[in-house]
Write a structure and sequence with these properties.
CATH topology of the largest domain: Aminopeptidase
CATH class of the largest domain: Alpha Beta
Number of strands: 14
CATH superfamily of the largest domain: Gcn5-related N-acetyltransferase (GNAT)
Order of helices and strands: EEHHEEEHEHEEHHEEEHEHEE
Structural class: alpha+beta
Number of helices: 8
Shape: globular
Distance between the termini: 27 Å
Number of domains: 2
Strand content: 35-45%
Length: 299
């Protein structure tokens, strides 16, 4: 059941409608209004992978958005929750979130909250887990780092989807095969091979002002650096971004040395059950980890 399909906020009468019917240029204008970097093409990619709604005013202008992405029968992420600056502080975000919560039922939920939105999500019952570090800038020549012992790099192609999806499932905790399939179509992918088996991988695609690296899955900082370094080298002198939850260690140090310092942070939050591994699950602990997010909306 939909919480409410329309609402009166100050002098605005807003109505919810399906995002699939929204014009991409209108969605692009909405994200630009709040300083988000998404191009129309970036909106199209996330729209293909999830469901969403937009809030329209009486003359049809798109003044808000919210999306959700189902990754398992009992797990969903929420993202692309945007409210036009003219409607912020009037309750638009809460109204859209109540609609999303009604649509997702009893599922466990995860999201990445900006500083401005964190209080809203806390009031809805979401619990803060970890910080995500948005690292970006003009890439510089990365430090020369040898590959881990007994490994080699090779390009990914569609034939590798099953293997990287299995690795990603362990690291992420849910099956993202459809996401990986779509992203691989628009990305350059790299796999780190040891003894004939993929032990780490990364994707890099056009996004916003330049390119974004993600997702990145590896079991150690050394493996993560191995699959990220070639992407950095490919984009020296250009804008590059990666979102990571790694706060300390060789991997974030490598990013900073490559011209990708921490620019901003968001907070990973969950509702109904924990989303992320416990703090005891550290790099090098034996299992694969998410070193780079696919996006803040997808995790």
């Amino acid at each position: 059941m939909v919480k409410s399909s329309s609402i009166q906020l100050d002098s605005f009468e807003l109505t919810l409608s399906e995002m699939e019917n929204a014009d991409l240029d209108a969605l692009h204008a909405l994200s630009l209004a709040v300083g988000w970097p998404h191009r129309a093409e970036d909106w199209q990619i996330v729209r293909e992978m999830g469901r969403g709604v937009v809030a329209r005013d009486a003359i049809g202008r798109v003044l808000g958005s919210a999306m959700w992405f189902d990754f398992a029968p009992d797990f969903t992420t929420i993202g692309m929750v945007i409210t036009s600056p003219r409607l912020q502080m009037l309750g638009t975000g809460r109204w859209m979130m109540e609609h999303v919560l009604a649509q997702t039922g009893s599922r466990a939920l995860g999201l990445n909250a900006t500083r401005a939105a964190k209080r809203l999500y806390q009031s809805l019952g979401f619990r803060a887990e970890k910080l995500d570090y948005q690292c970006n800038g003009e890439a510089v020549s990365p430090p020369i780092v040898p590959l881990p012992p007994r490994t080699r790099l090779r390009a990914l192609d569609q034939a590798d989807l099953a293997e990287i999806a299995t690795l990603d499932l362990v690291a992420y905790g849910a099956d993202r095969m459809p996401v990986l399939t779509r992203l691989l179509n628009v990305s350059k992918g790299l796999a780190l091979i040891r003894d004939g088996r993929t032990v780490a991988f990364s994707l890099c695609r056009r996004f916003g002002r330049g390119h974004v690296i993600g997702p990145v899955v590896a079991t150690s900082d050394e493996e993560a650096i191995a699959v990220v370094r070639p992407h950095v080298a490919d984009h020296v002198g250009s804008f590059l971004r990666i979102d990571t939850r790694q706060q300390a260690g060789a991997f974030p140090q490598f990013l900073a040395q490559s011209g990708l310092p921490v620019y901003d942070t968001v907070t990973s939050m969950s509702l109904r059950r924990a989303w992320l591994p416990e703090d005891g699950a550290q790099p090098g602990g034996g299992g694969p980890l998410i070193y780079g997010l696919a996006s803040q909306a997808l995790g």
